[in-house]
Amino acid sequence: MLQMDIERAQLALLTELAEIARTLGSPQRLMLLQHVSQGARSVERLAELTGLSVANTSQHLQHLKRSDLVVARRDGKRILYDLASGPINELLASLTYLAEHRRAEIQSVISDSVNQTERLEGISRDELLERLRDSSVTLLDVRPREEFAIGHLPGAINIPVEELEERLSALPVEHEVIAYCRGPHCVLSVTAVALLRRKGIRTRLLNAGFPDWKAAGLSVETGA
């Protein structure tokens, strides 16, 4: 009897995992999760960010909600969607790592997109925390202003990557620059690091992005 109970419990768990996998089996839903991981957003704004129709966005969000991956709350006349509780950012990161392991050409695609051949050296979250304590780095957030205002690493400077070359004079470079964006393979920060290095500025890439930092319970700031 005990063995049967164990097998039933295991089957129930695997059934739940299979349901989550089915829900995530859509690039549109993964894209929505990545945007929601930056902070709560309305259906209309998520539709703009993903290029989907409002109706299609709403449908995908309902699938994510049924699988307890996102939660909805009312803000006046708007419905905002945010990540549900649990290690969802870690799940997204694990999927990314698995994809990178299975398809090594992903790194080549990223490298080609910024015309670089060298592997970019990164900095770990623990090392960054230590460097922040002695104020020996300049934090550069290269995400769009909207994402920066929702939340960012303490003391970070926001220069969207498309403005970086024109605003180099606004970037303090007396210390090493640490660039970050949405995650370890976000093309925005890879592009920024490559650009700054070509300009002779000491720059490294944060091995994690803002969602990972926030999920770790570390301090964040809001506002522009």
Automatic annotation (TrEMBL):
Highest rank taxon of the organism: Bacteria
Q: Which SMART domains match?
A: HTH_ARSR, RHOD
Q: Which UniProt keywords apply?
A: Transferase
Q: Which SUPFAM superfamilies match?
A: Rhodanese/Cell cycle control phosphatase, Winged helix' DNA-binding domain
Instruction: Describe the location of the HTH arsR-type domain by residue ranges.
Output: 9-103
- Record-annotated Rhodanese domain positions: 133-222
A Gene Ontology molecular-function term? DNA-binding transcription factor activity
Q: Does the keyword Transferase apply?
A: yes
Q: Does the keyword Nuclease apply?
A: no
NCBIfam families, from UniProt? HTH_metalloreg
What's the protein name?
Answer: Rhodanese-related sulfurtransferase
Biological source species: Nitratireductor aquibiodomus
